[in-house]
Design brief:
By secondary structure, the chain is mostly helical. Helix content is about 80%, strand content about 0%. It is built from four helices and no strands.
Length: about 140
Protein backbone atom coordinates (compact mmCIF):
# COMPACT_ATOMS: atom_id res chain seq x y z
CA UNK A 1 0.00 0.00 0.00
CA UNK A 2 1.42 3.38 -0.97
CA UNK A 3 1.70 6.29 1.42
CA UNK A 4 0.16 9.67 0.56
CA UNK A 5 3.62 11.26 0.60
CA UNK A 6 4.82 8.79 -2.01
CA UNK A 7 2.06 9.88 -4.36
CA UNK A 8 3.00 13.55 -3.96
CA UNK A 9 6.67 12.64 -4.40
CA UNK A 10 5.89 10.97 -7.71
CA UNK A 11 3.77 13.91 -8.78
CA UNK A 12 6.56 16.30 -7.81
CA UNK A 13 9.08 14.27 -9.79
CA UNK A 14 6.67 14.11 -12.72
CA UNK A 15 6.10 17.87 -12.66
CA UNK A 16 9.83 18.59 -12.81
CA UNK A 17 10.37 15.88 -15.42
CA UNK A 18 7.57 17.35 -17.57
CA UNK A 19 9.32 20.73 -17.50
CA UNK A 20 12.67 19.17 -18.45
CA UNK A 21 11.12 17.17 -21.29
CA UNK A 22 9.21 20.19 -22.62
CA UNK A 23 12.35 22.34 -22.67
CA UNK A 24 14.38 19.55 -24.26
CA UNK A 25 11.83 18.76 -26.98
CA UNK A 26 11.15 22.41 -27.84
CA UNK A 27 14.87 23.27 -27.94
CA UNK A 28 15.90 20.27 -30.03
CA UNK A 29 12.95 20.67 -32.40
CA UNK A 30 13.79 24.34 -32.97
CA UNK A 31 17.46 23.47 -33.49
CA UNK A 32 16.54 20.81 -36.06
CA UNK A 33 14.20 23.16 -37.94
CA UNK A 34 16.80 25.94 -37.98
CA UNK A 35 19.42 23.53 -39.30
CA UNK A 36 16.99 22.22 -41.93
CA UNK A 37 16.02 25.64 -43.26
CA UNK A 38 19.58 26.98 -43.26
CA UNK A 39 19.35 29.44 -40.36
CA UNK A 40 21.95 27.36 -38.52
CA UNK A 41 24.99 25.94 -40.32
CA UNK A 42 25.25 22.20 -40.96
CA UNK A 43 26.18 20.10 -37.95
CA UNK A 44 29.86 20.28 -37.17
CA UNK A 45 30.27 23.77 -38.64
CA UNK A 46 31.11 26.83 -36.49
CA UNK A 47 28.34 28.79 -34.76
CA UNK A 48 28.61 32.58 -34.72
CA UNK A 49 27.86 34.76 -31.70
CA UNK A 50 24.71 36.01 -33.46
CA UNK A 51 23.37 32.48 -33.91
CA UNK A 52 24.18 31.63 -30.31
CA UNK A 53 22.23 34.73 -29.23
CA UNK A 54 19.28 33.47 -31.26
CA UNK A 55 19.52 30.04 -29.62
CA UNK A 56 19.79 31.70 -26.21
CA UNK A 57 16.67 33.77 -26.90
CA UNK A 58 14.44 30.82 -27.65
CA UNK A 59 15.95 28.79 -24.84
CA UNK A 60 14.95 31.60 -22.47
CA UNK A 61 11.36 31.41 -23.74
CA UNK A 62 11.36 27.62 -23.45
CA UNK A 63 12.91 27.79 -19.96
CA UNK A 64 10.11 30.08 -18.80
CA UNK A 65 7.54 27.77 -20.40
CA UNK A 66 9.14 24.76 -18.69
CA UNK A 67 9.00 26.54 -15.34
CA UNK A 68 5.32 27.32 -15.94
CA UNK A 69 4.56 23.71 -16.87
CA UNK A 70 6.35 22.44 -13.78
CA UNK A 71 4.59 24.92 -11.49
CA UNK A 72 1.20 24.13 -13.03
CA UNK A 73 1.65 20.38 -12.58
CA UNK A 74 3.15 20.59 -9.07
CA UNK A 75 1.04 18.96 -6.35
CA UNK A 76 1.82 21.93 -4.07
CA UNK A 77 4.41 24.68 -3.64
CA UNK A 78 4.65 25.51 -7.35
CA UNK A 79 7.52 27.98 -6.94
CA UNK A 80 9.66 25.38 -5.17
CA UNK A 81 9.01 22.94 -7.99
CA UNK A 82 9.87 25.56 -10.61
CA UNK A 83 13.10 26.34 -8.77
CA UNK A 84 13.89 22.61 -8.62
CA UNK A 85 13.54 22.58 -12.40
CA UNK A 86 15.96 25.51 -12.55
CA UNK A 87 18.49 23.59 -10.48
CA UNK A 88 18.14 20.56 -12.75
CA UNK A 89 18.78 22.95 -15.63
CA UNK A 90 21.96 24.20 -13.94
CA UNK A 91 23.20 20.62 -13.57
CA UNK A 92 22.34 19.62 -17.15
CA UNK A 93 23.77 22.82 -18.65
CA UNK A 94 26.94 22.37 -16.57
CA UNK A 95 27.36 18.83 -17.85
CA UNK A 96 26.88 20.14 -21.40
CA UNK A 97 29.43 22.91 -20.83
CA UNK A 98 32.00 20.48 -19.47
CA UNK A 99 31.41 18.03 -22.32
CA UNK A 100 31.78 20.64 -25.06
CA UNK A 101 34.14 23.24 -23.55
CA UNK A 102 37.21 22.74 -25.75
CA UNK A 103 35.63 20.72 -28.54
CA UNK A 104 35.95 23.45 -31.15
CA UNK A 105 33.95 26.23 -32.81
CA UNK A 106 31.15 23.87 -33.86
CA UNK A 107 29.96 24.08 -30.24
CA UNK A 108 29.90 27.85 -30.22
CA UNK A 109 31.78 30.41 -28.16
CA UNK A 110 32.51 29.73 -24.48
CA UNK A 111 30.02 32.34 -23.30
CA UNK A 112 27.13 30.29 -24.70
CA UNK A 113 27.18 27.27 -22.33
CA UNK A 114 27.94 29.58 -19.41
CA UNK A 115 24.88 31.62 -20.32
CA UNK A 116 22.73 28.48 -20.39
CA UNK A 117 23.87 27.69 -16.85
CA UNK A 118 23.17 31.23 -15.64
CA UNK A 119 19.67 31.53 -17.17
CA UNK A 120 18.34 28.19 -15.89
CA UNK A 121 17.12 29.31 -12.47
CA UNK A 122 15.80 32.77 -13.45
CA UNK A 123 13.81 31.36 -16.37
CA UNK A 124 12.27 28.60 -14.26
CA UNK A 125 11.52 31.11 -11.49
CA UNK A 126 9.78 33.44 -13.94
CA UNK A 127 7.67 30.57 -15.29
CA UNK A 128 6.64 29.65 -11.74
CA UNK A 129 5.88 33.28 -10.92
CA UNK A 130 3.67 33.64 -14.00
CA UNK A 131 1.65 30.60 -12.93
CA UNK A 132 1.41 31.87 -9.36
CA UNK A 133 0.28 35.32 -10.53
CA UNK A 134 -2.26 33.79 -12.90
CA UNK A 135 -3.65 31.60 -10.11
CA UNK A 136 -3.87 34.59 -7.77
CA UNK A 137 -5.67 36.67 -10.40
CA UNK A 138 -8.15 33.84 -11.02
CA UNK A 139 -9.25 33.84 -7.36
Amino acid sequence: MSQPGQSNGLRSFGAVLAGVVAIFILSIATDVVFHAVGVFPPLGQPFSDKLCLLATAYRIVYGVAGGAITARLAPGKPMQHALALGLVGVVLASVGAIATWNRGPAFGPHWYPVTLIVISVPCAWLGGKLVRNHAAAAR
